[in-house]
Amino acid sequence: MTREKMPAERWTPQPYEPEVFLSFDRLKRAVMKRVLDRAEQLMEGHFPIEPERIEGLVSEEWQQAKEALKSSPAAREAFRKYLQRTVGEQIDRRIKTDKAELEALGVAEKSL
C-alpha cells in the first residue's frame, strides 16, 4: 500500500506574544490554536491526519513555545528572581549552620 505524500507545509508561525507566558491556561490556548491552524492547513491536501503526525505537530509547537519563552526578557527576569531566592535560601542555611564559627571569626549579626 503506497501512502500519498503530504503537501509541503507552508507554515510560517508568528512570534508568540509575551502575555501568552503569563499563565498555563494562556500557554495551552496559544499552542492549541497554532497546532489546530497547522493541522487544518495539512488537511487541505491530506485527510485525515494520522495520530503520529498530530503528535508531531504538538511536539514541534511545544518546542517552539518553550524556545520563545526561554528567549523572552520576562523569562530571564523571572529566572533571576528565582535564582536570588534559591541562592539566598542556600546561603541562609549555611549561615545558620556555621553561625558560631563565623561569629568567632568576627562576623556580626547586623552591620553598623
Can you characterise this structure?
64% of the residues lie in helices and 0% in strands. It has helices at 24-43, 51-70, 73-104. By secondary structure, it is an all-alpha fold. It is rod-shaped, with a radius of gyration of 25 Å. The chain contains three helices and no strands.
Quick summary:
With 112 residues, the protein is mainly α.
Number of domains: 2
- Shape descriptor: rod-shaped
Distance between the termini: 83 Å
List unreliable stretches of 5+ residues: 1-8
- Could you give a short account of the major beta sheet? none
Amount of beta strand: under 5%
Mean pLDDT: 84
User: What Rg do the Cα atoms give?
Assistant: 25 Å
Structural class comes to mainly alpha
Number of distinct helices: 3
What is the total tally of β strands? 0
State the helical fraction: 55-70%
N-to-C order of helices and strands: HHH
